[in-house]
Amino acid sequence: MRKIWLRNPKRSCLALAALCGLIAASACSVAPKSSTLKRVPEGQQNSGFLKDYASLKPIPQLDGEALIYVNSDAEKNLRRYVAIIVDPVEIYVNSKVDEAMVPERARETVAIYFRHALENAVGSAYPIVSTPGPLVLRLRAALVGVDAGGDVAPLDDPALTAKPLPKAIVLEKVAVEMELVDSVTGERIGAMVDHAKLGAGAEVGTENFSRVARFSQAMQSLDQWANRVREFLDAEHELSAEDAARADQSYRPYGQ
Questions:
Q1: Mind listing the pLDDT tens digit for each residue in 195-215?
Q2: Distance CA 97, CA 90 (A)
Q3: Contact assessment for residue 96 and residue 42, using Cβ atoms and an 8 Å cutoff
Q4: In whole angstroms, what is the distance from residue 144 CA to residue 163 CA?
Q5: CA 117 to centroid of chain Cα atoms
Q6: pLDDT tens-digit profile of 163-202?
């Protein structure tokens, strides 16, 4: 067998050491994973979740607490759509909150429940689907202004298996930003920003908090926000006074 001898063992060792150093330096230079935390810009009421806020107007049906937009194109009327996709909810925290106090796991806990509440609220108006298509809406929603609370007290019932969060998540000053877009074209069909203060006393302190009576106010608040989204949809489905009068005039009971 032919042997291969290194001409300069010392130089080879130095080259190997340099190569190892380059590999280590490359590994250290890899950018750290960016945070998924979204914040409300300091001094701003809106989060930036919606691309356009200028076209939003008050809606009397929601007690003046909400601003809405509805596409004026008759071909893009909400009444024409037959199904809806509800996207995962996005969470925007208070601009000054410490990121360590609102970890991703805690934010996901709230986002998952609110998405479920939205599906329950709108599902009887539009069947929930998962695939884009003609006449299918996509509902995008964000909870804006989530804050951090204090330590989570031990559960009253030790038999409960809900895992405590590091810190409570406070929903007291949360607003909802929502947008309905055509699932194929992405064109905006409707939008709403709702600043109704429904979260007084609402906080979340455990995963699967829906099983813990202590956090029932949080569940009720999230359900109410979802129901206001449904009220917006219902208001847009109502006939105008002119259309209602025309319908009454054309009504002929059976047999007449």
A1: 998 999 999 999 889 888 889
A2: 17
A3: yes
A4: 24
A5: 11
A6: 888 889 999 999 999 999 999 999 999 999 999 989 999 9
